[in-house]
């Protein structure tokens, strides 16, 4: 018979008012034994304070205590107490050998704030946040603190504002060590020229022909004069970043064309 999951009681929030504006405050939840289950005797802990747990992680091994006389001889199988949420164990609320009554608090867990999310999955605890959103419905409290998109080529990767600030500080320190500034260079009409009109009388040398999708117009792109020499020299002095007002697909298609991806 499958063990019933532990219940979650109310817990105190550890964050301040300012954190609520950016994402959920730190929540500490009580993991309780279900009220309708038999009392348990705690035999062995499977976690300790500071342990990272996921949904269905085993917290403790317990022995059910039969309530009817005459059933003591027929020993009930041991039960695994499992967590119903992800986070970090803050406190073990029972001693070995102690009887845990129905509704009794077993552990306290600081819930995962899901600070790094990739395609709906938390990188810290592995929780599928899309399932939480469908379960919680139109809740007002944010599920994750990950609200900042950090990588242009991977828009599904989101991090919390704290993580973004830390990454920003690391970038700044790296630039100081390398003694470089960042140079932002526009793509169109600065490095390249792209048009839908292709002159058949012109040489095809150095022109890249491509479509962004089926049914899309054919595009023709050429490096502007002395672009390669400019980038090779300026890259020694600056950390280069390229931006465009065009679409993301257009930018990555251009950057992937030889020999452009060796330069950009």
From TrEMBL:
<dbReference type="GO" id="GO:0005634">
    <property type="term" value="C:nucleus"/>
</dbReference>
<keyword id="KW-0378">Hydrolase</keyword>
<dbReference type="InterPro" id="IPR058785">
    <property type="entry name" value="BSH_FCP1"/>
</dbReference>
<dbReference type="Pfam" id="PF03031">
    <property type="entry name" value="NIF"/>
</dbReference>
<dbReference type="GO" id="GO:0008420">
    <property type="term" value="F:RNA polymerase II CTD heptapeptide repeat phosphatase activity"/>
</dbReference>
<dbReference type="InterPro" id="IPR004274">
    <property type="entry name" value="FCP1_dom"/>
</dbReference>
<feature type="compositionally biased region" description="Gly residues">
    <location>
        <begin position="8"/>
        <end position="18"/>
    </location>
</feature>
<feature type="domain" description="FCP1 homology">
    <location>
        <begin position="176"/>
        <end position="264"/>
    </location>
</feature>
<protein>
    <recommendedName>
        <fullName>protein-serine/threonine phosphatase</fullName>
        <ecNumber>3.1.3.16</ecNumber>
    </recommendedName>
</protein>
<dbReference type="InterPro" id="IPR023214">
    <property type="entry name" value="HAD_sf"/>
</dbReference>
<dbReference type="InterPro" id="IPR039189">
    <property type="entry name" value="Fcp1"/>
</dbReference>
<keyword id="KW-0539">Nucleus</keyword>
<dbReference type="InterPro" id="IPR011053">
    <property type="entry name" value="Single_hybrid_motif"/>
</dbReference>
<dbReference type="Pfam" id="PF26077">
    <property type="entry name" value="BSH_Fcp1"/>
</dbReference>
<feature type="region of interest" description="Disordered">
    <location>
        <begin position="1"/>
        <end position="21"/>
    </location>
</feature>
<dbReference type="InterPro" id="IPR036412">
    <property type="entry name" value="HAD-like_sf"/>
</dbReference>
